[in-house]
Amino acid sequence: MGAQAQRTEEWADVTPDAARRLLTAAVEAFAERGYHATTTRDIAGRAGMSPAALYIHYRTKEELLYRISGVGHRLALGILRQARDGAGTPAERLADAVRRFVRWHAEHHTTARVVQYELGALGEEHYAEIVALRRDTDGAVRDIIEDGVAAGDFDVPDVRGTTLAVLSLCIDVARWFNADGKRSPGEVGELYASLVLRMVGCAQER
Amino acid sequence: MGAQAQRTEEWADVTPDAARRLLTAAVEAFAERGYHATTTRDIAGRAGMSPAALYIHYRTKEELLYRISGVGHRLALGILRQARDGAGTPAERLADAVRRFVRWHAEHHTTARVVQYELGALGEEHYAEIVALRRDTDGAVRDIIEDGVAAGDFDVPDVRGTTLAVLSLCIDVARWFNADGKRSPGEVGELYASLVLRMVGCAQER
């Protein structure tokens, strides 16, 4: 799947088309120059629109960031919940969660970077809403690890800390992943799934 | 050690005092607003100096970023090389490397974020120089892992990929670490050392 197809899929729920074009333009501008160095005029220009046309869809630059952050966090949470609620042993579900979460961060690394690095620019209410989504994301992974511990399949002395580390490892793929590099998103996902099973002391990996 | 003492230690080699003050002001400004949204006037103002006084020490804003990046990368490399060249088994040296590298990223998270997230703003020559330092950093960790594999202490099917994952896990501490949070830099370092020994399939951890 090409970069264009991924972008389309990522923002598929955003309508109308003009609103979606503005969001993808904002992601690119924020990623290149940072949130604070980007103006709504820059974003409108990238989308081939006038600043006035932008304001029909988004009242402020912060609202664009909030929408981007919401889409990114909801997709990530959806991926992890689907893995958590899937069939299979805790080890299979954890490996599935990591594979898919890593792939998402590799394929959508530009969006993921904006989402992760510009959190501080969100307004207070929006920030609180995003933090709640992050807590749920954390909870989905913690649930799988706790299932594995309860089943006697995992050996995890510090469940909260290990959950944090697993998520951190996967999220940081967005920082270093290079689409022209040697490893495909799927290959990184496969490697990381095996490393994470080791981190949780999975019996099959011992 | 307080934040002020850490900052002093971090930039201790930068002289004269005015040059050091400008660097720490630049780190704070870049971290808050991003490189592209920061002007040399902002940086001089934060340091209590005039823009003209800034230019005595740094010709451009990029030169400030380059100096910050150089100091950060050289400190990180020094930490890992010291651990690599220390006494002890590969497991002890790897645990030592992770503990110290994590502590550095937790204690100096503001500098580390600027160093990691603004790489793309470096000029071509400066970027090449920093990439070489990053390759050496990677090499120091890979050396320890290879020692462990050669000694039969570690079981690592993919040494390059695992090295990348170990470094990534430690570096991302700078993103999420909160000085007011529940875990101290030392506690995160300790947890991560044990997780990394599991990632390399260390015999004692199996």
Automatic annotation (TrEMBL), chains A, B:
Keywords: DNA-binding. Gene3D superfamilies: Tetracycline Repressor, domain 2. GO terms for molecular function: DNA-binding transcription factor activity; transcription cis-regulatory region binding. Residues 39-58 bind DNA. InterPro entries: Homeodomain-like_sf, HTH-type_TetR-like_transc_reg, HTH_TetR, KstR2_TetR_C, Tet_transcr_reg_TetR-rel_C_sf. Residues 16-76 form the HTH tetR-type domain. This is TetR family transcriptional regulator. It comes from Streptomyces triculaminicus. The lineage of its organism: Bacteria, Bacillati, Actinomycetota, Actinomycetes, Kitasatosporales.
